[in-house]
Amino acid sequence: MTTPPATPGATPAATAATPADEPLGTRRRWTVLAVCALSMFLVGLDTTIVNVGLPEIGRGLGADTRGLEWIVDAYTVVLAGFLVVSGALADRFGRCRVFRCGLVVFGLASLACALAPSLGLLVAARAVQGVGASMLSPVALAIVVNAMPDPRERARAIGLWASVFGLSMAAGPVTGGALVEAFGWRSVFWVNAPVIAAALVLVAVFVPESRGRRARRLDLGGQVLLTLALAVTVAVLIEAPRAGWTSPLALTGYAVAVAATAAFVRVELRRPEPLMDLALFRRPVFTMAVLGAVAVFVALNVSLLLTTLYLQHSRGWTPLAAGAATLPMALGATVCAPWAGVLAGRVGPRRPLLLAGAFTAAGGLCLVNLGQATGLAQLSTAYLLIGIGFGFANAPLTNTAVGGLPPARAGVAGAITSTARQLGAAVGIAAAGALVAHVPDGRLAEASRPGWLLVTCCGLFLLLVARASRTPAPGTTAPVSSAPRAA
């Protein structure tokens, strides 16, 4: 399945671009990258900034852990479900037009979140935020990929793009903690307004309009089935701990999720212009990159939610203190994400993926015996290691997914990878919430230990992804196992 988050990506339509009438100059190309990176920073930030404010939101709106999970996952599930179709719309109606529309929708939904008087309205507004974010993610990477004709320059650009998105994800809790402490939980949504305003101006000035060579048909059937499969899967993970894993509600959810997934695959394989080109999964390297993207974001979101609930509920820390505790995570991501992009461009994805897996697994192992009185040094070390692992992971996974593909197919590869990131984020939140739902504050540390073991397993899986990665050296193009579908 796409960098928010990227993890966000581009769709086949989004990158089947018409060549520019005149090639962009070097300064203009990197300016376009900077503008796209600003929008992706916003998308990534809103994926995690809310986490540290969840306890305050719960107190303010009377929400339990299950309701708090929906506040986060309403955004990520809708974002994941609409990434690909938003790229197709951009191809049909113009990237800049859809990009600006996404900024407006995102901004208005942010205002609705800030003003929401109840949990239900906040969850609904978060879902609309996800729709707006889906119009930003695929278009951003599509613009970046097509603005950089040189493969080496493109690899560096993708590395920087993934770095910005990764940094925004890691910086979210720190930013959120400071805002909640100073201005209350609603401020984490108000803060989007000036960024949206600046992005609208910059896009209008610097990003040229473009469309695909040929407008693709919209696969509405595939879109409905994909969204249904994602939403039901996450709903089961959130609701089953309360209703029971073998309850009629859960069993119905399993059946619907499996049926929707099977129907989606069947529909996509029969369409000449599918929502997703499932033929890409015939490439083992690509499949492993997609699964690696899921694993990375499961690990990150499990870490963030368990940290937030443990530090604020079990240990009584303030939102600012809890956010500050994740500073080592943000530092690790900030330092290592650009380095990962450089490594991926120079030597390929294997080395940074090995580092990502090793550091993530080590960070999870540090906390598998988490206790009520675990020291700050141990916590900080674990968060630093997880941040380093996250920083090293994003760029090589994106590069692995699109490596060796012509531009018309690199788009769908990026789209599927970005959908996988958001699916991983949603599953990570749901899994972490399932572990600690209805657990007394004094037992949160013990209840969260399986979550840290899951983080460790995600890191070990990245080692397998690294072993499987065999993308061509930068500047070359490998043959593709199947012909492109109506790019």
TrEMBL record:
Protein name: MFS transporter
Transmembrane segments: 30-50, 70-90, 102-125, 131-148, 160-183, 189-208, 220-238, 244-265, 285-311, 317-340, 352-370, 382-402, 423-439, 451-468
Main location: membrane
UniProt xrefs under Pfam families: MFS_1 (PF07690)
Membrane topology: Multi-pass membrane protein
Boundaries of every Major facilitator superfamily (MFS) profile domain copy: 32-474
Similarity remark: Belongs to the major facilitator superfamily. EmrB family.
Keywords, in A-Z order: Antibiotic resistance, Cell membrane, Membrane, Transmembrane, Transmembrane helix, Transport
Species annotation: Streptomyces roseoviridis
Localization per record: Cell membrane
Biased composition (Low complexity): 1-20
Region listing for Disordered, in residue ranges: 1-21
